[in-house]
């Protein structure tokens, strides 16, 4: 999981990012002290504009307080510092005017760099969010560091190294030590990173287990994309009695950011669904129920939802079996509501991109297991997820999302969401996120968070007296990354 996601989720749990930066910088300073041979060792800290640079600035403060001679090189104009926490620590370091052991430099281009560096070098320039080729003056700083005989300490990851893949952008710092935070990044290896030391900076496990606003970082959109390139969702459902459910699912998908939604429904439900919104494309089945599936529509879609308002009858069961048999097992499909009564585990066990969204009763019936308290539910959902390759999203007071033994939890939502239709909204959001290129597991996690958050925002205005329709307008606000 990306560092920025974990940091934002920790903040959502009540831990300020400034505190995490302070913890990281202090731990970094302590490790540098243990590496230094004497207290007379000169320490040069090269700081970037992001959180890594802030960690370096905190470390500089603590090292000066310990009596070390420290020289800081900010590798950008101060007005270009990207992190507000780094700005705060830049202000602090510039207020340390009493100490003779601190020298601060701003490097606007490579001509501002020293000709050589010795002692201990701290690389706090680029962190886990590296993209593209390394630009000046950081490129020249990396060459300076690599050409020196100094002991090189990298902060979190050596600048230029992708911490996820382990690939080098085009040039990277060769570190003797890498002080990384919270957990070892999987792309780190001793060849580039040197000796790897992990610092615990106080991030609780909950920041990774519980879905939070940090997970919204996963949603990306190409600014040069065209109509249809950000997701085409197909909703299959509806019946004479339940005509509104597919519309709720489709409108939720649109509010969650996909480009196009098509609803395949019986002729009895089509007029009602069309009346909901002109934004929905409605394709009619010449029947009172979903008794056949248009596979051409399926193949043109980026993700499928089947179940909202479906109703259970023999012809619909036959159509569902046909879909599962004919669909490519790589096609993402969300199975919800009445479709969960039609599914058999044996038929879907090879579908890696399938998402099941049962409530507790549906889950027990589907997997023939029981359990009421959270710990037993986690145990059973984990076990059930190993029986299929796909994703299980067990809805409840705390949602449980699992795939192949991997587990996350979501606690957004409130008792007002027991109203009918909130599950249809959830399935639409999940399918929308999948169509926007999120992995089904991540889409299920984030979909549960957004759905619950939209419900929480609705409850702030309406109390618990709101409908699923009223929830729809809160989806975009629930998706805002603050």
From TrEMBL:
Q: Where is the YjeF C-terminal domain?
A: 211-482
UniProt-annotated binding residues for K(+): 52, 123, 159
- Identify the residues that bind (6S)-NADPHX: 51-55, 127-133, 156, 245, 309, 359, 424
List the EC numbers from the record.
Answer: 4.2.1.136, 5.1.99.6
Q: Which GO terms describe its biological process?
A: metabolite repair; nicotinamide nucleotide metabolic process
Q: Does the keyword NADP apply?
A: yes
Where AMP binds, per the record, is at: 423
> Is Magnesium included in the keywords of this UniProt record?
no
Which HAMAP family did the record assign? NADHX_dehydratase, NADHX_epimerase
Classification via NCBIfam families: yjeF_cterm (TIGR00196), yjeF_nterm (TIGR00197)
Protein known as: Bifunctional NAD(P)H-hydrate repair enzyme
């Amino acid at each position: 999981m990306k560092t920025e996601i974990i940091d934002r989720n920790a903040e959502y749990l009540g831990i300020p990012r400034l505190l995490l930066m302070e913890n990281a910088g202090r731990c970094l300073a302590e490790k540098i002290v243990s590496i230094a041979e004497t207290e007379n060792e000169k320490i040069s800290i090269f700081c970037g504009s992001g959180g890594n640079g802030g960690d370096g600035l905190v470390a500089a403060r603590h090292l000066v307080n310990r009596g070390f001679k420290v020289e800081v090189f900010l590798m950008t104009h101060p007005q270009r510092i990207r992190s507000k926490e780094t700005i705060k620590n830049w202000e602090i370091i510039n207020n340390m005017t009493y100490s003779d052991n601190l020298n601060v430099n701003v490097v606007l281009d490579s001509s501002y760099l020293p000709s050589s560096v010795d002692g201990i070098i701290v690389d706090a320039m680029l962190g886990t969010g590296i993209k593209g080729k390394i630009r000046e003056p950081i490129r020249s700083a990396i060459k300076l560091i690599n050409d020196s005989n100094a002991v090189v300490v990298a902060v979190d990851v050596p600048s230029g190294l992708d911490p996820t893949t382990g690939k080098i952008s085009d040039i990277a710092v060769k570190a003797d030590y890498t002080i990384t935070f919270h957990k070892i990044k999987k792309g780190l290896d001793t060849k580039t990173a040197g000796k790897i030391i992990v610092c615990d900076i106080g991030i609780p496990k909950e920041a990774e287990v519980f879905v939070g606003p940090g997970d919204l970082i996963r949603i990306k959109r190409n600014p040069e994309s065209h109509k249809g390139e950000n997701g085409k969702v197909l909703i299959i459902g509806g019946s004479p009695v339940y005509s509104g459910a597919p519309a709720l699912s489709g409108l939720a998908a649109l509010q969650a950011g996909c480009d196009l939604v098509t609803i395949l429904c019986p002729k009895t439900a089509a007029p009602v669904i069309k009346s909901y919104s002109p934004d929905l494309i409605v394709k009619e089945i010449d029947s009172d129920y979903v008794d056949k599936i248009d596979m051409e529509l399926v193949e043109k879609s980026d993700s499928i939802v089947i179940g909202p308002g479906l109703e259970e009858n023999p012809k619909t069961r036959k159509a569902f079996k046909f879909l599962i048999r004919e669909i490519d097992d790589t096609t993402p499909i969300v199975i919800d509501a009445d479709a969960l009564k039609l599914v058999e585990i044996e038929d879907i066990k090879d579908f890696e991109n399938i998402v099941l969204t049962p409530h507790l009763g549906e889950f027990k019936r589907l997997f023939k297991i029981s359990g009421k308290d959270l710990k037993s539910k986690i145990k059973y959902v984990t076990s059930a997820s190993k029986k299929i390759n796909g994703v299980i999203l067990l809805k409840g007071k705390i949602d449980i999302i699992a795939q192949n033994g991997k587990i996350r939890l979501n606690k957004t939502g409130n008792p007002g969401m027991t109203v009918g239709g909130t599950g249809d909204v959830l399935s639409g959001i999940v399918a929308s996120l999948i169509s926007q290129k999120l992995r089904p597991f991540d889409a299920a996690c984030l979909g549960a968070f957004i759905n619950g958050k939209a419900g929480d925002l609705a409850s702030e205005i309406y109390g618990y007296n709101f409908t699923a329709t009223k929830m729809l307008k809160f989806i975009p606000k629930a998706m805002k990354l603050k």
